[in-house]
Automatic annotation (TrEMBL):
Pathway in which the depicted protein is active: Amino-acid biosynthesis; L-arginine biosynthesis; N(2)-acetyl-L-ornithine from L-glutamate: step 2/4
Protein family (similarity comment): Belongs to the acetylglutamate kinase family. ArgB subfamily.
Species the sequence originates in: Spongiactinospora gelatinilytica
Annotated binding of substrate, by residue: 66-67, 88, 187
Domain of life: Bacteria
Role: Catalyzes the ATP-dependent phosphorylation of N-acetyl-L-glutamate.
GO molecular function, one term: acetylglutamate kinase activity
One BP annotation, GO: L-arginine biosynthetic process via ornithine
Protein name per UniProt: Acetylglutamate kinase
UniProt-listed Enzyme Commission number(s): 2.7.2.8
First-listed, main subcellular location of the protein, grouped into a coarse class: cytoplasm
Site positions for Transition state stabilizer: 31, 248
Length: 316
């Protein structure tokens, strides 16, 4: 190894020090979107990142999606998929498929990849131990309520089992299915489920991995990324958002307004995006913070390159 390479590697490692100190013991909820599960190498890198967080002393929790995987399965069965305001219109027949694909296929897959590194991953459906209780959700389109079938909004989170798993050194991996008080099973958008869980756990971060670099300011006309946005700014922007970004950014807003200090949307197509976000000085993607907090140092004129944990808020 040349001296230069050694020095670069050491610099990269030592750059992580303040963030390791900052996030030691922190609960981080990671939403792993179906669109970010595109190739095997990326999926393996994601599992490595989550296990890395666990070994680094954080408490990662994974909430996974699987929208494209559900659509592919519905397609094979000849059942049409349609979305309203970014949510799948879910007939009872489609609900069976949603549950089967998320709990039986995607969850097993993510747990398996994590467990290649040790006995950490434990899969759960939001139905288990009453983790998520839901009530039927109606989409709102042009001010009108629209029936979208068996889609739920989470009304209660019983996070005790997730906490117990974390206390036991495990990495909970959760499917976004919920049941109602009357036992009906509901399809919950995974971004929404991740945000509600992050709030209930008092997480320090919500990280949402998807298939775009972050929130584009004027999508699809331009691909200018919004690096940092406050909850108030996001609340104003939200009605103009479309497709999958609507529930995603709504979820970030819910998390931050529910007391989670930072919510991030990252490009899951970038290998190790999760580690880069948490342990390096440059944040990546879009960060949502409570109003009153400033952007990352590079977003401001008075960048001072500091990595003192006391200045974490300056990055946030
Ligand atoms: N303003 C925007 N910025 C970025 N992406 C957007 C925006 N509006 C809509 N999108 C779309 O939202 C998609 C991400 O949502 P979604 O497909 O639900 O992803 P995931 O499966 O990761 O949850 C992007 O691939 C993009 O096509
Ligand atoms: C109600 C609703 O839309 N549920 C989603 C649940 C999966 C999900 O959210 O997957 P992604 O994160 O990959 O989009 C669906 O059926 O597609």
């Amino acid at each position: 190894m040349s001296d230069l390479t050694a020095a670069t590697k050491a610099t990269t490692l030592i750059e992580a020090l303040p963030w390791l100190a900052e996030f030691h013991g922190a609960t981080v909820v990671v939403k792993y979107g179906g669109n970010a599960m595109t190739d095997d190498a990326l999926k393996a890198a994601f599992a490595e990142d989550v296990v890395f967080l666990r070994y680094a002393g954080l408490r990662p929790v994974v909430v996974h999606g699987g929208g494209p995987q559900i659509s592919a399965h519905l397609d094979r069965l000849g059942i049409e998929s349609s979305f309203t305001a970014g949510l799948r219109v879910t007939s009872p027949e489609a609900m069976e498929v949603v549950r089967m694909v998320l709990v039986g296929q995607v969850n097993r897959n993510v747990v398996g990849l994590i467990n290649d590194h040790g006995p950490f991953g434990v899969g759960m459906s939001g139905e288990d131990a009453h983790l998520f209780t839901a009530a039927r959700k109606y989409a709102v389109v042009d001010g009108e309520q629209v029936d979208i079938g068996q889609v739920g909004d989470i009304v209660k989170v019983e996070a005790g089992t997730v906490r117990a798993l974390l206390d036991n050194g495990r990495i909970p991996v959760i499917s976004s299915i919920a049941r109602s008080d009357d036992g009906t099973v509901y399809n919950v958008n995974a971004d929404t489920a991740a945000a509600e869980l992050a709030v209930a756990l008092g997480a320090q971060k919500l990280v949402v991995l998807t298939d775009v670099e972050g929130l584009y300011a004027d999508w699809p006309a331009s691909d200018d990324i919004i690096g940092s946005i406050t909850d108030d700014e996001l609340a104003e922007l939200l009605p103009s958002l479309s497709s999958g970004m609507l529930p995603k950014m709504g979820a970030c807003l819910t998390a931050v307004r529910g007391g989670v200090p930072q919510a991030h949307v990252l490009d899951g197509r970038v290998p190790h995006a999760l580690l880069l976000e948490i342990f390096t000085d440059e944040g990546v993607g879009t960060m949502v913070v409570p109003a009153g907090k400033t952007g990352r140092p590079q977003d401001t004129d008075d960048t001072d390159e500091t990595t003192d944990p006391a200045d974490k808020e300056a990055r946030a």
